[in-house]
Amino acid sequence: MAKFVIKNATVDRDYKALAQAIESDLAKKGWCELSIKESKRGLSANAQQHVWYQQISDETGESVEMVACRCKRDYGLTIVFQDDDVGSILSWQFEKCGFWKLTDEQQLKFMKTIQVTSLMSPTQHYKFRDNMREGMRDNGIFLEYLNG
Question: What region, left, alpha or beta, does residue 34 occupy, with left being phi > 0 and alpha being psi -120 to 50 degrees?
Answer without folding.
Answer: beta
